[in-house]
Amino acid sequence: MERKSTTREPIIQEPEPFEPEATRRRAGTTESARANRGWWDRNADEYQTEHGTFLGDDRFVWGPEGLDEVEAELLGPPEELKGRDVLEIGAGAAQCSRWLASQGARPVALDLSHRQLQHALRIGGAFPLVCADAGALPFADGSFDLACSAYGALPFVADPVLVLREVRRVLRPGGRFVFSVTHPIRWAFPDEPGPEGLSVSASYFDRTPYVEQDEEGRAVYVEHHRTVGDRVRDIVAAGFRLVDLAEPEWPAWNTQEWGGWSPLRGSLIPGTAIFVCERD
Fold it and tell me: What processes in GO biological process is this protein linked to (predicted)?
């Protein structure tokens, strides 16, 4: 006969899902790196599930607008990429590196997040994957002909000049670095894809970082704002020459929303800025 319990079973309650608090406050180099490494490791699976189809496995897309390097040729004509050593910074699942390899280039895909690089391994590709901080690149001087970063590293670091100088160090003379970031004007608007995202709600000139923090005030995600002028001065201070600034328009074919990016907002204000820099 089954023995009956004389005590009530404890009720097990699932913990409430953690919702970080969004705020604007200072966040230095160490705090930003720690928070963003953790955030991307935790959210890499969801990110690749949500955006993997749009990004593809071997496309080189510069941002949510869908500007493709095949059309943009910001790194140069595709036929000139063959045999070139290329560093991709903030590579994620290395979609851009995979496209570069298909053009005959020799890419190296670098990311701060180990989990993102595991997705790169899952998809595959015959090129090196490196888990490292963009502010301390583990490569010798003059190792690469080109470097690129599609929304990688630069928006998430407290000291962008440090990263830019590191990129310049590992580039050979005449090398080109192309990177895309959220268009700085977007920081003046709420990060909403609908009509509520079209009214200015903050000062464009407020450089206070956007921070998501836990109950104890520890940052779990950090993004840093720089104005267009700041970005240009950072590029010059690092020893680069700015040769182009691209602001992709939202194309009619792209009906997808991506966070605060949307066809509605994209038809009215820029969402992405792409800086094309060269080392003399």
Answer: methylation
